[in-house]
Amino acid sequence: MRAMHFVGRGAPLVAVAAPLPDCAADEVLVRVSACGVCRTDLHIIDGELTPPKQPLILGHEIVGRIVQRGNQVAVLAEQQRVGIPWLGATCEHCQFCTRGLENLCDHAEFTGFHRDGGYAEYVAAKAAFTFPLSDRYSDTEAAPLLCAGLIGYRAMRCAGDGRRIGLVGFGAAAHLIAQVLVYEGREVYAFTRPGDDRAQSFARTLGVVWAGDSLTRPPVLLDALILFASLGSLVPFALSVVAKGGRVVCGGIHMSTIPSFDYSLLWGERKLLSIANLTRHDALEFLALAPRVPIKTQVEVQPLAAANRAIDLLRQGGVQGAIVLDCR
Ligand SMILES: [Zn+2]
Ligand SMILES: [Zn+2]
After folding, report:
1. Cα(109) to centroid of ligand 2, in Å?
2. What span, in angstroms and rounded, lies between the C-alpha atoms of 49 and 12?
3. How far, in Å, from the CA of 87 to the mean position of ligand 2?
4. Cα(313)–Cα(309) distance, rounded to whole angstroms?
5. Please, what is the average pLDDT of the chain?
6. How many CB atoms lie within 10 A of CB 84?
7. Which of 178-187, 214-223, 260-269, 313-322 shows the lowest mean pLDDT across its residues?
8. Three-state SS string across 135-197, please?
9. Rounded to a whole number, what is the distance in angstroms from the first to the last CA of the chain?
């Protein structure tokens, strides 16, 4: 099969002819049609996250069709369209798995990190961590739901049910979650890179009540603010724009160092928390909700062979919505 290999920190991905993945008894083999490009992939390429295997196939927003089922798999059908997210396997018996917190599993395996991902023509995935997708979405449109959507949704739920919600970094995750918040009747405040008028106009088209630069104070104090940008330097600012009892949720897997800040910013029962990974419950809930809203995903599609260019586009910013690889 054609695949793009991550071969080491800082190096471009390499196009290779790789053997077809083995399909274990509890796995399905999936012919990949689309795979989203996530900021986590950038963190891996930049050496900010170190995967345990190399070469590695990145990609954890995978849409494809099942072409083979392991002999223990009874739930899914061949040719069924499925999505494969970041959470690839859990141990099911650690102190977190047994409390419904499998996102924190001590022995989790992540797609495109411990396990090969979707920057390829085929991928093998645990059937129990593979999800049917609504017909409302095309393959490329469905891809961003699987990480930007799922992690964004978990971050949104952890932000609480306050009315005024800020979203910092108006990229793939924010453009999906803004639609859910608007659907729920909440006020969304969008913070973009300084001077990014295009992103601010895009946010307004999705129904946000205010859009501005990431260091501009909004006109009111917020109940919660979700940081989708991976800049730790934004945390003190974020705390300064939430009201007493408000929450600041860090929505990425990696964040640069958070500078020290005065205790007064946290005082008043403000909370600062991170979001780690997702649970299968999050996936089922969000994938059922998306077509009801209905969330519209905006995608820019690049061919699999242009994965390095797609990564550069994400790094440069300025893409509206999400970048997705066409792997057919
Ligand atoms: Zn991701
Ligand atoms: Zn576990």
Report:
1. 10
2. 16
3. 12
4. 6
5. 97
6. 29
7. 313-322
8. CCCCHHHHHHHHCHHHHHHHHHHHCCCCCEEEEECCCHHHHHHHHHHHHCCCEEEEEECCCCH
9. 11
- The ligand placed nearest to the CA atom of residue 143 is 1
Between the CA of 314 and the centroid of ligand 2 the distance, in Å, is 32
Distance in Å, CA 302 to ligand 1 centroid: 17
Q: Which of 210, 202, 212 is nearest to 296 (CA)?
A: 202
| CA of 173, nearest ligand number | 1
* Domain covering 150-274: architecture: 3-Layer(aba) Sandwich (3.40)
Which ligand does the CA of 277 lie closest to? 1
What's the Cα-to-Cα distance from 261 to each of 155, 235, 267, rounded to whole Å? 23, 9, 11
Structure token digits, residue 313: 């586009």
Counting ligands in written order, which one lies closest to the CA of residue 94? 2
User: What CATH code would you report for 2-145+277-326?
Assistant: 3.90.180.10
**Contact predicate 249/158, CB 8 Å:** yes
Question: Average pLDDT for residues 66-85, to the nearest whole number?
Answer: 96
Q: Structural domain boundaries of the chain?
A: 2-145+277-326, 150-274
C-alpha 211 – ligand 1 centre gap (Å): 24
The phi-psi region of residue 185 (left if phi > 0; otherwise alpha if psi is between -120 and 50; otherwise beta) is left
Residue 61 alpha carbon to ligand 1 centre in Å? 7
Please write the tens of the pLDDT for every residue from 203-253.
999 999 999 999 899 999 999 999 999 999 999 999 999 999 999 999 988
